[in-house]
Amino acid sequence: MIKINNLNFGYSKHQLLFKNLSMQLSNGHIYGLLGKNGAGKSTLLKNLAGLVYAESGSMDVLGYNPAKRQPALLEQICFIPEEFYLPSVKIDAYVKANAVFYPNFDHPYFTSLLAEFDIPVGQKLINMSYGQKKKVIIAFGLATNAKLIIMDEPTNGLDIPSKAQFRKIMASALTEDRCIIISTHQVRDLDNLIDTVIMLDENSVALKASVEEITDKLVFKRVKEIDETVIYSEPSLAGFNAVMPNFHKEDSKLDLELLFNAVLAEKNKLKPIFN
């Protein structure tokens, strides 16, 4: 679905955000795009949506170059940005003006998502809280039935119950012909949702692996003492939360936040395990 080859991009010629970045993404997956602030998560998403253009390299999205912004591709991409503006209209007027750009827009599905998010449909968008606005555009994005759904920090502004609703809705929104990419710095919000982790660091992809591969090669556990087998650890009340090679094929639950910190601190130790 997406092929990126030797992508180089920077907002100035003297400072590149990406250097020879390459990866492939497939349909039928929910990817979690992680990285520190400034690592280029939002910029990569904008490249995919054709909102900014690379210095060099190639990018193929559904068989198209997104930089050309061809209508046949744009109707299959829904990009939900972190910052957005909604006009002073009611939801039905917003849908009437925007749903026409998506030939597969599902109006009943959109209505059901609004009900699940508990959105007051008669209220003007401009008078809603930030969290309510965010839920409206998430519902609209999913109802487009676009093949590529791109979300930049979608859980910002959502309270804890709404984040649980979001995870439930996103898990049911994935289909075999759809690819969903979610970028966030709130790592725990993606727990039990994503099936593949992509981490950006130092102008490149520091880690790209499925949750299954990660838990097959690494074990996340609490230990009383640190020894040479521990790749990364953080103090806890009862010892240390540790990331270790999974020599004995133990079952453990992926700790996304611990993995995130481990990659940033010890990527040189982790790279051989995944390469």
UniProtKB/TrEMBL annotation:
GO terms for molecular function: ATP binding; ATP hydrolysis activity. Residues 2-227 form the ABC transporter domain. The keyword Transport applies. Keywords: ATP-binding, Nucleotide-binding, Transport. Pfam families: ABC_tran. This is ABC transporter ATP-binding protein. It comes from Pedobacter frigiditerrae.
